[in-house]
């Protein structure tokens, strides 16, 4: 594989996006490279194409495996492990979303639940608990909604996304009918 300027630009951008998704830039670059590669790549190829150390590749592979974003394959008569994206782009998005929920939202919900179980000691804590309760309810609703979305087929989810604000118009129309 040869990284043309356009391909390299995409890979570098994936590195920047990776840091926003919750893993480091190098891991994002590795995943971007694997996404655009027609063939599975082995660690030395990844190292050479991205000009990073073999150790960095090894750590990056472990990180991508922990996110369940890559799969390991083997070729006949070749002892090397080859890496490729695990599933479709849609499945990748769901995995990133699920991992971020586990790493960010779930601990926040746990903290909020623990804080809301305690009786407030004063008015300031009572006010703060009110706000924490609002945050908890919002995160619970979003988590429930996201779980329902994850259960949809890619085709149904695509249809729902294409409806976009059209769903809001249907709800507004329903509200007018009920009045």
Automatic annotation (TrEMBL):
This is HTH-type transcriptional regulator. Keywords: DNA-binding, Transcription, Transcription regulation. The keyword rRNA processing does not apply. Belongs to the GbsR family. Gene3D superfamilies: Winged helix-like DNA-binding domain superfamily/Winged helix DNA-binding domain. One of its GO terms (molecular function) is DNA-binding transcription factor activity. The keyword Protease does not apply. Residues 26-80 form the HTH marR-type domain. InterPro entries: HTH-GbsR_regulator, HTH_MarR-typ, MJ1563, WH-like_DNA-bd_sf, WH_DNA-bd_sf. It comes from the Bacteria.
